[in-house]
Specification:
Oligomer: single chain
Mean pLDDT: 93
Structural class: alpha/beta
Strand order of the largest sheet: 3-2-1-4-5
Low-confidence stretches: none
Radius of gyration: 21 Å
Number of domains: 2
CATH architecture of the largest domain: 2-Layer Sandwich
Order of helices and strands: EEEHEHEHEEEHHHHHHEHHH
Helix content: 40-55%
């Protein structure tokens, strides 16, 4: 009987599934739909993961129903901090011999530093900082949109929408960014208002590329938003520094997320000096986690 290890990084916009054999051979990686278990029904989150997993397994003629394999899955999912949601998710029927659920930030930090101590800041739809020091984990930000997650794609989109409304009724001067935001809604105020009152974090995040594009083209308003985003991320980095055990030596910090490369140039010199390239992605960290669980389960008391 062969062991198959599965690592899942599930976020607000997509999930990424990595599958390895017991000897570390990579069977494949696939992208699936979103898997934020707070923002969507847990059944749909499972469906997204199963769809991506089967996309990897089918070319190898491996089925989850095949009794010649034991499947061990490490899940790093956005929104798993709520106890009732976690319980509901884990109580769904599944096909795995071993299962471990934690946050997407935890597995990202494991992957970034290959299981060693370190920090990460994810700047994607939202923003979260995470730190691992031995057996102690610390988290900063990432408590949900719109009440938190300043500096992420959803926040950038929300700010752009807010300023566009202000420009439309002449509270502030229009700019190329705000004109582009309104054009995104076909210059139709009713369409824009309806969307803004119903939009999710992912939908607000669709406006973030406009902010990024116009900041690179020199739009003052867009640049101001990028600077404010960087300041919010700097505060996350500073908070992580305060929880470090060794005050005379900084832990390495890696950045994740689609917005990160565009915010990074605006970050403080102090935070940029701590940045290192990540060694692996979050789905690699999820596999490291499930293998740690297996080793503990197999070790003598």
């Amino acid at each position: 009987m062969e062991d198959i290890y599965i690592g899942v990084d599930g976020g607000a916009t997509k999930s990424k599934v990595r599958v390895e054999k017991s000897d570390g051979t990579l069977l494949g990686v696939a992208i699936g739909g979103p898997a934020n278990i707070t923002r969507m029904p847990v059944e749909k989150a499972w469906d997204a993961i199963y769809a991506a997993l089967n996309e990897v397994l089918e070319p190898h003629n491996i089925s989850l129903a095949n009794k010649n394999y034991k499947f061990h899955i490490g899940l790093g999912l956005a929104g798993c901090e709520l106890p009732d949601v976690r319980a509901d998710y884990l109580n769904q029927s599944h096909s795995f011999t071993t299962i471990k659920l934690t946050s997407d930030a935890h597995v990202a930090c494991l992957g970034a530093h290959n299981g060693a101590d370190g920090e990460i800041i994810i700047i994607g739809t939202g923003v979260v900082g995470y730190q691992i020091q031995g057996d102690v984990d610390n988290r900063v930000s990432g408590w949900g949109f719109p009440h938190d997650d300043e500096g992420g794609g959803a926040w950038l989109g929300l700010e752009a929408a807010r300023l566009t409304f202000q420009s439309l009724d002449h509270r502030i001067t229009a700019s190329p960014l705000l004109e582009d935001v309104f054009a995104f809604f076909e210059n139709d105020l009713n369409q824009f208002v309806t969307w803004a009152n119903r939009a999710s974090s992912s939908e607000f995040g669709r406006l973030a590329p406009l902010v990024i594009k116009h900041s690179q083209q020199g739009d003052d308003l867009a640049i101001q938003l990028m600077k404010k985003a960087a300041l919010a991320v700097d505060l996350v980095g500073s908070a992580l520094m305060k929880t470090q055990k060794q005050k005379n030596k900084s832990l390495p910090c890696a950045l994740f997320g689609g917005i990160a490369p565009f915010v990074e140039p605006w970050l403080s010199a102090e935070l940029r000096a701590r940045l290192v390239p990540r060694k692996g992605d979050a789905n690699v960290g999820a596999i490291l986690m499930i293998k740690q669980v297996m080793r503990k389960d197999c070790s003598p008391d």
